[in-house]
Write a structure and sequence with these properties.
single chain; alpha/beta; TIM Barrel; Chondroitinase Ac, Chain A, domain 3; 2 domains; 8-stranded parallel β-sheet; about 30% helix; globular
Length: about 550
């Protein structure tokens, strides 16, 4: 009871303090397909990196890792906060390590996104406290189809949900106490890649009882109200005239049931946290690999197939997004866009992250991207070695500065990625009355590929003027016939460096560097910023 009154008191104290000082919390907006994170009243672009799972557990790690990430041009670090470490003894909270991470982040002008590893991480319960793991009567386990207990806390554990929620509320109350003005902490991820790992769904006694009962009317009504907009996977199974889970969801009953249970649990945790400090909160998903079945991937996670169940239940989660490790990056981004999620890539494969980031910020108009294991990225051994590619991308985006967020919001950006192993040799995007057709860079005259990968972000800065960020592509620009019948030409191509509106021309590209004024020939391996001026003339 004392913990309850402590949290209520902390909440009221922090609320009055923030109101008195006029502090606005970070917020996320989605308008015209563009996502914005507003911090201190201005759009903030997260150039992020997620730490390895075991990289944020000590103060010494903060001292060594965060300065290094700042040198890699990362501006926001996604760090795990483990329930087991924060509450090693029931009812006793230890925030010393988190406080040190926040202090060091401030010293290096970094922001943090907290990843709450509570009851689940990657479907399992490894980050729950030892006193939770050891008491299977009080904190029941999910069970397999043969009745054996698993290393997974059951979503039906009432005491588990209560204490997970209490710990998360204590975390948010503490962050609100120490961080309302600086807002070093921008967002919070609630749990991590949840889902049942086994044969589709939990077979504990209580789970079986509820599964054989009627689907909650509130869920039925919410899905029925969106009947025409359900995903193909959910729409093909949904039968609002049924009663039990099997009758309503058919072959998808097991996964739909687990989605409902995880969403219910996660919403309860998020609600208690938001009552203390209403930062934006999101939840991530582990995507299915090709040919995987539910249970091989975490069954019941917020995958796009059945995510609308989450959206019907978990009103305190602001958005969902997947951790993308598979080649179909654009496909998965588009699936989550179609469900009206703001675009933030919480975790991605680091070796493909640089070009995918150009797609995310340019084409999907994301407010952030974050490759996983950023702390393992090697630094150059000497000054002449090139910086890591993600560092080059982040550096170029930082140079665009305040140009990028309004351009995203006004539909003045595009992006693309090409791979030698991909399905098409070239791609075209339209912007500002022009078509930008790109192909991977080739040598001349042998026409052999110079790189296996390339990508670009195109930003229209003024009529007929564009900033192009990227590498590995040769780009041909023509007039868009859907706009008018004029023909297009290149007035000038310049390699640039600078910050926002203050630019320096490094080189003016002519002759062989522009295919005699006909194409933008990007550097095959290094990220550059190019300013391209075009003209449209009457034929």
């Amino acid at each position: 009871m004392r913990n309850k009154y402590f949290l209520i008191g902390m909440s009221l104290f922090a609320l009055f303090a923030c109101v008195a000082q006029g502090t606005e919390l970070p917020t996320i907006t989605l308008k015209n397909g563009a996502s914005e994170l507003i911090v201190h009243g201005k759009p903030y672009l997260i150039l992020g990196g997620e730490l390895g799972n075991s990289s944020a557990g000590t103060e010494a790690q903060a001292d060594t890792i965060q300065p290094r990430l700042a040198s890699l041009r990362v501006n926001a670090v996604l760090i795990p906060v483990a329930w087991e470490q924060m509450e090693p003894t029931e009812g006793t909270y230890d925030f010393r390590i988190l406080d040190h991470w926040i202090d060091v982040a401030r010293q290096h002008q970094l922001h943090l996104v907290l990843l709450w590893f509570g009851s689940w991480k990657n479907g399992f319960s490894d980050y729950a406290p030892g006193w939770v793991k050891a008491d299977t009567q009080r904190f029941p386990r999910a069970r397999s189809i043969d009745g054996a207990p698993l290393d997974i806390l059951s979503t039906f554990g009432e005491e588990t949900q209560r204490l997970d929620s209490r710990a998360f509320a204590a975390l948010m109350a503490h962050v609100r106490k120490i961080d309302p003005q600086q807002q070093t902490v921008l967002m919070v991820q609630v749990e991590n890649e949840v889902g049942y790992r086994g044969d589709r769904r939990d077979r504990a006694a209580e789970a079986n009882r509820v599964f054989n009962d009627a689907v909650p009317q509130s869920l039925l009504q919410a899905l029925q109200s969106k009947r025409g907009a359900l995903t193909p996977e959910l729409g093909a199974q949904f039968n609002p005239r049924g009663q039990t889970w099997n009758q309503v969801f058919g072959d998808a009953a097991d996964e739909a049931f687990m989605a409902w249970r995880y969403a219910t649990y996660i919403d309860a945790v998020a609600q208690t946290g938001k009552e203390q400090y209403a930062l934006p909160m999101y939840h991530n998903a582990q995507l299915p690999a090709p040919m995987e079945r539910a249970g091989e991937y975490p069954s019941g996670g917020p995958h796009p197939y059945y995510q609308q169940i989450y959206r019907a239940v978990a009103s305190h989660i602001d958005f969902y997004f997947p951790d993308i490790y598979w080649p179909e990056f654009a496909h998965w981004v588009q699936r989550y866009q179609a469900l009206d999620n703001p675009i933030f890539i919480p975790e991605a494969k680091i070796d493909s992250a640089p070009y995918n980031a150009l797609y995310a910020y340019g084409e999907a108009k994301a407010f952030g991207s974050s490759p996983f294991g950023i702390d393992n990225l090697p630094l150059p051994s000497n000054e002449t070695d090139p910086l890591p590619l993600i560092t080059q991308v982040y550096g170029a985006l930082n140079e665009l500065g305040d140009l990028l967020p309004p351009a995203q919001a006004e539909g003045r950006t595009r992006g693309m990625v090409l791979h030698a192993s991909g399905p098409r040799p070239s791609q075209t995007v339209a912007l500002g009355g022009y078509l930008f057709q790109a192909a991977l860079s080739r040598s001349w005259p042998a026409k052999t590929l110079l790189t296996d990968d390339g990508g670009m972000l195109v930003l229209e800065s003024h009529p007929n003027e564009f900033y192009v960020v990227g590498s590995g592509l040769t780009v041909t620009m023509t007039r868009d016939p859907d706009v008018d019948s004029r023909f297009a030409g290149i007035s000038s191509i310049e390699e640039m460096c600078g910050s926002g509106t203050h630019w320096t021309v490094l080189r003016r590209l002519n002759g062989d560097q522009s295919n005699q004024g006909r194409q933008l020939a990007m550097d095959a391996h290094q990220i550059r910023i190019y300013r391209v001026r075009l003209y449209a003339a009457i034929r």
